[in-house]
Amino acid sequence: MKTIVVYKSKSGFSKKYASWIANELSADLFEHSNITIKELESYDTIIYGGGLYASGINGVKLITKNLHRLEDKRIVVFASGASPPRKDDLEKVENNNFTKEQQKKIHFFYLRGGFDYNKLTPIDKLLMKLLKWRLKTKATLTPDEKGMLALYNIPTDFTKRKNIEEIILLVNS
Ligand SMILES: Cc1cc2nc3c(=O)[nH]c(=O)nc-3n(C[C@H](O)[C@H](O)[C@H](O)COP(=O)(O)O)c2cc1C
Question: Is 153 helix (H, G, I), strand (E, B) or coil?
Fold first, then answer.
């Protein structure tokens, strides 16, 4: 069984998970821009991982737009965000990124990443500054919003190797 892990990662969190998964499964590992759909077609299991940006999984269209070409494959997608895993939020992420039909085919996982302001692109820095200003004008903040503000100052890494266990079990089953 040939397995490939593909990732798109802005600040390295999804890349770290992708490397751990590829290592555990002795799978090939590729960055999103270095692989074509034609090459993906030669694998039995395709694992795709990307950072979560405003509930969108970075680069996941490589999979969703080409799903008709990957019908006989096992497809796993993981998203890596800064937020803690909450059932409601994850359902929204799933519905935001996949149609109901696609959800039947794609095994979706959330692997908590982290946040490193210094590694963001200028555009993402600007977006985060706007969010910070908006939060600062609010009279009361939710615990999540307070947590979000705290992340701006200290790079935070929530990744844990054990988070990949469910994916490894699924692929090996
Ligand atoms: C503009 C922007 C939007 C973000 N939106 C979300 C989000 O909707 N949910 C979340 O959990 N994290 C969000 N994050 C945090 C990233 O998902 C988190 O840092 C992730 O681990 C990055 O993964 P990567 O380094 O592999 O790209 C956002 C970060 C930025 C800069």
Answer: coil
